[in-house]
Amino acid sequence: MERYKLLMDPVYDEFILVERGSPVEKALKSSLLQRLRYIRQLGPCYLVYPGAEHTRFQHSLGVMWLVRKTLNFLKLKGFSPEPLTENALLLAGLLHDLGHSPFSHALEGVIVPESHEKITVEAFKLLAQEVGLERELTEEVLSIFTKSHSQPYTYQLISSQLDCDRLDYLKRDAFYTGVSFGRIEVNRILISAIVEGGELLWSYKGFNALESYVMSRYQMYWAVYFHKVNIAAQVLLEKIVKRMRELLLAGEKLCCDPQLARTLREGDTENLLRLTDGNVVVSIYNCQNSKDPILSDLSKRFIKRELFKTVEVKPSRLIELREAVERAGYNPEYYFEVVEPSKVAYSYYSPESEQLIKVKLEEGVAELSTVAPTDAVKALSRKVSKTYAVIPKELHPHSNAQPPSLQS
């Protein structure tokens, strides 16, 4: 085993193998990938589920490992990619989240107004230079990230409605939050993978596991990702950073982390790639003593876990609620937010998507929900539309708390 580096993964209860001297090992040593050790996978969700302290680094290793397993299963069926493509797939799995902001999706597009996918492309180019990846391999990985590869299965394995990314984060997030919904049969699903005509298909023999995946995905979204307290924590975090930026651009001096301050003022991605959760947390701690009453109050709420309240409302009540927040003396720009879960970063399965889960039958190929013996998958894949208003908890009808004195 001296040929391999062994990394124990408690989620799969096995060693992840990394070949010494391989492109994957080179990437593992890069500062850009090591940064992900300090970014939580689920952002501020640890304020809801205390065990949710796992990182983007752990998830990245897991995705790479599932790609490796899938390729091994495909080889047993006679499909074997070229060595260049195989190395590129492993790297794409490992590096697909390089561009995440601190606190992951909670601050995506907030610190820097770009998606993590777009930043990942730029970050990978920097990493390729840092560790000396060959140009041909670099171009192959980029074609997977940009979904321009001639073989669609390559990017479908990394980014589609059923991919190694989703399989790992569902299982990993369930493991660390302690919920049972995401405990899916990963190996049973992966061994069902088929590549035909360059497309990724799934054997009908694995249908029960595929159906369970869709059900688990739906349950995880509402129990974890769309949890009302998690939504409130994310909104509060976003408002704090928004206020920091406004004050910094107005020339105010804040006791926040210098690297975060520079990034908020300049808005460039290279600065973002030097930030971790730690930069943000230190800044929030320091800003509890800010002279600005709004920033001070928001920061204290986050540190003391005195979060906003997330209330499900009818869309027709939103204007009324916003006006109520303003009448109570709050600046609604910082103390009111509308959240529609169906429009956020996480989403459950949609048969209307361009990238369907395609099942291989004896008579051809069909979309997953059309071959199910019951309507369970079809029912679960219908979009559930909810509208939430996020407001200070003391404005909730059942709260006895008194509003603080604030000046906007």
TrEMBL record:
Domain of life: Bacteria
Limits of the HD domain: 56-170
Pfam family, one: HD
GO biological process entries: dGTP catabolic process
GO MF terms, alphabetically ordered: dGTPase activity
InterPro entries tied to this protein: dGTPase-like, HD/PDEase_dom, HD_assoc_2, HD_domain
SUPFAM superfamilies: HD-domain/PDEase-like
SMART domains linked: HDc (SM00471)
PROSITE patterns: HD (PS51831)
PANTHER family the UniProt entry points to: DEOXYNUCLEOSIDE TRIPHOSPHATE TRIPHOSPHOHYDROLASE, DEOXYNUCLEOSIDE TRIPHOSPHATE TRIPHOSPHOHYDROLASE SAMHD1
Protein name per the record: Metal dependent phosphohydrolase
Native organism: Thermovibrio ammonificans (strain DSM 15698 / JCM 12110 / HB-1)
